[in-house]
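Worked example 2:
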Amino acid sequence: MAHSGKIKSYDNNKGSGMITPEKGGDALPFNKADLQQEGQEPKADQRYSYETKQVDGGKSHATNLQMEQGQKDSESKQQG
């Protein structure tokens, strides 16, 4: 099941970050390998859809992060 959330933080040097679920709850960690758009650095407050998986004895982790369509459109306009 896909969820939505906003990027809370991302450290490009470490290749990891946190995403805050829109429906509330604790921020979930994710790694660069969990991003669907390779080479794209997530920025704070960008909306992403994601799935969760259980790791490290049952802790939730965000995976398959994908920038939501409206975000992609505004990103290309800002870069252009």
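The helical segments are 69-79. Residues 69-79 form the longest helix (11 residues).
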